Amino acid sequence: MFPKGSLFDRFPYLLPNLICASMLLMSIVLGYFLLEETHPDMQPRVLLPADTFLSENTPLIETSDAMKRPAVDLRDENYGTMRARDIKNTSPVPKAIDKQPTYNVFSKKIMAVIVSLSIFTYHSMTFDHLLPIFFEDDKVPSSQPFGIFKVLSPFYSPGGLGLSLQSVGMVMAVQGAIALFMQAVVFPVMAERVGVYRLFILITVFHPIVYSIMPSLLFVPEGLLYPAIYFCLAVRNFFSILLYPLLLILIKEATPSTSVLGKVNGLAASAGAACRMVAPPVAGYLYSLGRKMDCTALAWYGSTFVAIIGAIQCFQVKRDRSRDAGGDDGMSQYSDSDGEATLVAEAA
């Protein structure tokens, strides 16, 4: 495609990385100019109420009938003097200073959603890591028959699919189109009809299916291989693409105030990044270990096991439908299952 000895020929991965970097830069620019600040103390002045700032130009409140009812009596003999005054009572009583409430970002409700997000991030990253390796890995020659018992055994899965690099690229492109369809069409309909919390439970509970069906591609006939691949990718994108925005919605709903929304999102992003860091080496080790034992499905079964843990843990995520009418910026007011409120207000 590129001339011999050219820049992109010597560095074949430079072009896709440049495209990804350009798209990331575009996202940063669009986010900076189009997204609104959620922290109440950092919002622009035009977005705040009109009575937030007072200055010397602010009109004074007009008194009612000030001429007929003066504030002081000039005929009083003690006016302007210190006589007949109780010095003890003249000192102003200091008013109690209202302290801003503090919020516990490590509450049970928030941590349950973050743990669920971390588990999902881990096994989702293992899928993205294993998919091209499994597709490009050498396929066992057809001259070596599997045998009926080996085919029926879930632990016999030698090698990969043996696809070419161009074929893998085309499959990944189709996967992107499937993901876009799931995000733009399927997710809004499912979230509206099923509900956010119920859809989250259903998607998480059945998510292990995604990884358990991948090793079966080794035993699909050659003529049906690509339809089977696209079917598996459709199943995977249905669960994965729908689950991620559901988790983001639950994180925002579990946050007691917009003033700590940045902390909660930062904590969730850090936990997810840690899981993404651990997932590839663990999945790669399991795949290489399974390849020596003619069981490359070992890596997929490892992801299935983690997804099962997530299916059990998702029931720890409790969604309180109550709304605090006088809450901060319309955010939900939540309390833990043991009755301990996540909002910790300091005494004035």
How would you describe the overall organization of this protein?
It is a multi-pass membrane protein. This is Major facilitator superfamily (MFS) profile domain-containing protein. With 348 residues, the chain is mainly alpha-helical. It has a domain at 106-344: MFS general substrate transporter like domains (Growth Hormone, Chain: A), CATH 1.20.1250. It has helices spanning 7-10, 14-34, 87-90, 108-136, 148-152, 165-194, 196-205, 209-212, 225-254, 261-292, 297-313, and strands spanning 102-103, 343-344. The chain has a two-stranded antiparallel sheet with strand order 1-2. α4 runs antiparallel to α11 (297-313), α6 (165-194) packs across α7 and α10 (261-292) packs antiparallel against α11. The chain is globular. The chain starts with 6 loop residues before the first helix and ends with a strand. Residues 323-348 have low confidence and may be disordered.
Summarize the structure.
The protein contains 11 helices and 2 strands.
Q: Any chance you could write out the topology, listing elements then pairs?
A:
Blueprint: H1 7-10, H2 14-34, H3 87-90, E1 102-103, H4 108-136, H5 148-152, H6 165-194, H7 196-205, H8 209-212, H9 225-254, H10 261-292, H11 297-313, E2 343-344
Antiparallel strand pairs: 1-2
Q: Overall mean pLDDT score?
A: 80
Q: Please indicate the percent range of residues in DSSP E strands (runs of 2 or more).
A: under 5%
Helix content: 40-55%
Instruction: Please list the strands of the largest sheet in the order they lie side by side.
Output: 1-2
CATH topology of the domain at 106-344: Growth Hormone, Chain: A
Organism: Pseudoneurospora amorphoporcata
Membrane topology: Multi-pass membrane protein
Subcellular location: Membrane
Transmembrane segments: 13-35, 110-135, 163-187, 199-218, 224-248, 260-279, 299-317
